[in-house]
Structure formats: structure tokens, C-alpha cells
Amino acid sequence: MATIKDVALAAGVSVATVSRVLNDTAPVNEETRQKIQRVMKELAYQPSMIARGMRKQQSKVIAIVVPSYENPYHIKLYKFIEDEAKKMGYRLILVGMNEQNDSEHESVMDLMRRNVDGIILFTYGGNKSSIKNILHLSKQLPIIFMDNFDFDEAISSVVIDGYTGMWEITNHLILLGHKCIGYIDGSSGYKVANERRNGYEKCLKDHQIAVETKLIYHADYEIGAGYEACKYFMEDCKSRPTAIIAANDIMAIGAIGYLRERGYQVPKDMAVAGFDDIYLSRIIVPNLTTYRQPLDIIAEQVVSLLTDKIKNPAIEEKQIIVDGELIIRGSTDPSKPDEMFPTTV
Asked: Which one-letter DSSP state was computed for residue 262?
């Protein structure tokens, strides 16, 4: 499948010149124009099907692709992105995908055929073959990734600083006196998950605490995985931790569910912390200590980055890292009162 860069290379011109011919936005030498049009025909380049960001008549529709409808984080961020997109004159559609197969690439191809102007893509850990295909497609249709990838190709992305966030959560627990801290990991081998786990491990090392593999439980970001991880730490782990950190709030809530079911008190018997600061973190009792992702800032950045790419497909790829904030609540610090449904002694 030919790209605009392929056309530019074959015609011996810049990508911007090809874009001007496609959009008829500026004068181009007639001989050059005919050469570009001839190359597009030879390469079977079809801007009407795939180069939506370079069309004069856009659909004004942006798609958000998420790995799960069940995570409240995605739904809440969708609302913030929707508000920002409306300011720019765009409508949103939400698309779910199953990361257990190659549906990521299929989802993106389908959206291209449906004439969306751009895509915002979340993926917890889709397979690398599928992601590489999407990276190729991102050269033809504006795509902003909400995750990092271990690939050499430049991409446009907006991500939270998970390394720093997890370091701060771990440090908070160590300062409270915890030395044996269990960690519920996300999708193993995936860069976002690795960065958060690396932050946890680095903080332990900074405090001269050994990193123990038996204290790291590899999971899948779902609430059931948090429950099973906590069950492992409490029933099977030879070094039972005094605190647990989960790579997201959903798994932390699953862990608290197990503890409450078995009669343990949080944080007296086990401190628990998460990552994201979803709405449920302020409802569960005790309220969940977490690392807040500033959804308003993330939404503003991703919409701005995507609309810039829609206006100018040849714009340089850009990676934006957003800082979060440690939020300390009663699941780790008993002195913190619950914000919602406070309990009395």
C-alpha cells in the first residue's frame, strides 16, 4: 500500500508538494503536478481511501479505539476528549477491540474505510505484529497513540509519566514503614507496564530494599486479576507483603475486594495503592491511594496534537509526556478521612 512519502520519493519532490497537489492549496508547477499525478497512478495511491487527513472535504469525525469498555478510566477520558474535540468542530465515535487477536489492525483499517479524519488509539498490550502494521498506517492516516512502544519508528503519542508515578507511590509506602511491598504488574513485556514496574523497582533499590520476583504478580489490568493477585500474596507467597501496589486502580480495587471478603482490614492488615485515580477510587472504602492522571490536560494535548496532524499530515511526529499527582487516601494512610461514604468508629 503506497503512502504519500512513497509518492514524494518516486516523484522526486517533497511530501509538502504532494500534499499541495492533493489539496490544491497552493500553486504547483504544471509539469511537477502532472509528474506527481502520474506517479500516484503508477503506485495505485488512493488518497480518497486512506489519506483522510489530506482531503479537502473532511468528515470531522475522530475515532477513539479502546481495549475495553469496562475500565472507567477510558470512559472518563473519552468525555474529556469529546469536550475538547467539540471545541475544534469534531465529533467522536468510540470503538472497542479485543487484544487477544489481531483486531487492532482490522479496527484501524475499518475506520479508514469509514472516512474518519483521525484516530486516538489505546492499547494495553496488543501483539507487536499488529502494532507494527498500525505504525505503518499512521503514516497514511493521523493516529495518536496513548501508549509507548519499543519500536524504532517515530510516533505521535501522549502518555503519563508512569515511571515517576510508580516511584512516588512506592516511596510513599516505604516512608510509612513498609519494606515488603507486592506489585501487581500489567501486561508483561509492554513498555507502559515496564515503565511503571521499573519505577517501583528503582524506588526499592534507592532505599536499599531488594527486588524480589515472588513479590511481582503479572496480570492483565482487569479487576479479576487484582483479586487473584491479592489471593496469591495472602495465601501462596512465601514473603507475604504488608502493602500492595497495582498498575491501575481497577486491579487495586480487585485486591481490596479479596481482602474485605476474607475479613482483612485496609490499611491495618494490608495497605493498597493503585494508579489512574478513576472515580471508583473515591467511592471504595477506604478511599484508594493512587496516582492521578490529569485527564483534562491529557485530552487537551491529544486533541491538539491530532488536529495539527489532520491539518498538516507531514508535520513532525511528537511525543508528549504528562506529569501526574500522587493522591494519598485511606487505603494506605488511616489518618486520611474518606471523601465519600465516610465511616465512623
From this structure: T
What is the b/e burial string over 143-175, where b = at least 16 CB atoms within 10 angstroms of the residue's CB?
Answer: bbbbbbbeeeeebbbbbbbbbbbbbbbbbbbbe
Q: Which three cell numbers stand for residue 214?
A: 515472588
Nearest to 280 by CA among 272, 288, 292: 288
H-only helix segments in 26-141: 30-42, 72-87, 103-113, 128-137
DSSP at 166: H
Return the bridge partners of 118, or none: 62
Please state which of the ranges 3-12, 144-153, 287-296 shows the lowest mean pLDDT: 144-153
Pairing of strands 290-292, 325-327: antiparallel
Task: State how far the Cα of 229 lies from the Cα of 223, in Å rounded to an integer.
Answer: 10
- pTM of the complete model: 0.78
Q: pLDDT tens digits for 152-180?
A: 677 889 999 999 999 999 999 999 999 99
Residue (of 141, 147, 164, 195) closest to 319 by Cα position = 147
Phi and psi, residue 23, nearest 5°: -95, -15
CA angle 164, 166, 170 (to 5 degrees): 115
Residues in the chain: 345
Amino acid identity for residue 198 in this structure: N
Give residue-wise pLDDT tens across range 250-297. Answer: 999 999 999 999 999 999 999 999 999 999 999 999 999 999 999 999
CA distance 199 to 328: 18
Q: Which H or E element spans position 171?
A: helix 162-175
Q: Beta partners for 287?
A: none
Q: Which three cell numbers stand for residue 313?
A: 499530515
Instruction: Give the separation between CA 168 and CA 149, rounded to whole angstroms.
Output: 23
Considering the chain, what percentage of its residues have pLDDT values greater than 70?
86
Q: Are 108 and 142 in contact (CB under 8 A)?
A: no
Dihedral angle of Cα 140, 103, 154, 152, to the nearest 10 degrees: -130
Average pLDDT taken over every residue of the chain: 87
Stretch 327-344: mean pLDDT: 84
